[in-house]
Amino acid sequence: MANSQTDLRANSLVSTIEAILYLKGQPLSLAEIADCAGCARDLAHEALLDLMNDYAQRDTALEVVELRKGCYTLQLRDRFQSLVERLIPADLGVAALRTLAVIALKGPLPMADLVDLRGSGAYQHVQELVERDFVKKRRYGRSSMVQVSEKFHRYFQLDVENQNSAQLELALNQLRSSLPPDEDAAEDPEDLEDPEDLDRDSVDPDLD
Amino acid sequence: MANSQTDLRANSLVSTIEAILYLKGQPLSLAEIADCAGCARDLAHEALLDLMNDYAQRDTALEVVELRKGCYTLQLRDRFQSLVERLIPADLGVAALRTLAVIALKGPLPMADLVDLRGSGAYQHVQELVERDFVKKRRYGRSSMVQVSEKFHRYFQLDVENQNSAQLELALNQLRSSLPPDEDAAEDPEDLEDPEDLDRDSVDPDLD
Fold it and tell me: ∠ CA(B113), CA(A136), CA(A84), 5° rounding?
């Protein structure tokens, strides 16, 4: 009886963690998972290993993987990248994708800093990216912060923290089947090369 | 050889459709699924039945179901509603949830019509709901349209088209563990009772 109750609880924790990864839609640390599940980290870790094993044994579109030490995600298997490419809105240009890459790498970041990095075109890009659900804009006082959304993680499933700028930009660009000329290279020659001044708490009263 | 190729193609279509349902994150018609998969509807339907059967046989957090005739979704099983409740941002008030219910029922709808239905508090609610990724705001010329996001569907998995207002409002409110008093009942006594005048193409220059 005690044993079957333990099993039941263990099974339930495995699928609870599956539900958490699905709902959150982004890579989560073991601490975050345990917190959402309301259990100890060692129990969460054990259940995660079971869940990853379950998914590894099934030939489905999804997998649960440890992206890097202690960070887990439910994601599409690599072999569906061509499908992702096909389903990305066709009218999202290279310039907007580059802005998306900056937000993924450096976000959450103040809108003003994004404009410093990407030029004033960033306002339009963020508008497009918010409309398409790839970016979230959140107001803090008179400033706005931008960061990638859960949908970004579903589509791009990139281990952002382990990517350097060039790799991420390349990965995003490769998702486009045909690359139009870079619309904003002339305007922003130093794209992605100015990571030092991102910590300013700048205020941008003209936003929104 | 021909047979194993056919099997391979069939297996691949089943998981391609799984990938599409995961990426889109909202209920899709058979026509939309077939279009995304690039196959005929009868093939898509056959693969969907296989996929639903696969999920039905596994004891996991997710299921693939036909919500109503010809409309399919990948969603959390009902038994995870208490988890959803726990993970909804605690500071999202009843008034914002009511606005969310209106957007789910009547969206995509012009922002101006939402304000007619929910009062001027709707501006603040939409801002909060966009920040939390439950709502998308899209600009059309000088007007804005609002509609629920993929994340809304992951969290609320409600068959919006088959819900009437009262049911949906009740369902959203029941997701809150403890209901504070309705902050805006006095201001908007006719909430959700004016569905006739939603087709106006109103313009709202003050938006954003």
Answer: 105
Measured between CB atoms, does A24 come within 8 Å of chain B?
A: yes
Let me know whether B182 and B155 are in one domain: yes
Asked if A62 and A113 sit in the same domain, the reply is no
Q: How close A94 comes to chain B (CA, Å)?
A: 20
Contact B130/A149, CB-based, under 8 Å? no
Last residue of a domain, one of B50, B76, B102: B76
How many residue contacts between A and B have a Cβ separation below 8 Å?
107
Specify whether the CB–CB gap between B106 and B195 falls below 8 A. yes
Tell me which residue range forms the domain holding B12. 2-76
Residues A48 and A147 in one domain: no
Q: Is B49 helix (H, G, I), strand (E, B) or coil?
A: helix
Q: H or E segment at A73?
A: strand A71-76
Spatial distance between the Cα atoms of A130 and B138, rounded to a whole number of angstroms: 8
Tens of pLDDT, residues B36-49: 999 999 999 999 99
A132 and A157 co-located in one domain: yes
- Where a domain ends, among A46, A76, A106? A76
DSSP bridge partners of A11: none
Instruction: Answer yes or no: do A21 and A107 share one domain.
Output: no
Does residue A52 share a domain with residue A137? Answer: no
Q: Any idea what the CATH number is for the domain that residue B186 is in?
A: 1.10.10.10
The answer to whether residues B46 and B30 touch, using CB atoms and an 8 Å cutoff, is no
| Chain B hits for A54, Cβ within 8 Å | 60
Which residues in chain B are closer than 8 Å to A89, comparing Cβ atoms? none
- What chain B residue is nearest to A135 in terms of C-alpha separation? B133
Query: Who among A18, A23, A130 is closest to B155 (CB)?
Result: A23
Yes or no: say if A97 and A161 are a contact pair by the CB < 8 Å rule. no
pLDDT in tens, A3-58: 444 544 555 899 999 999 999 988 999 999 999 999 999 999 999 999 999 999 98
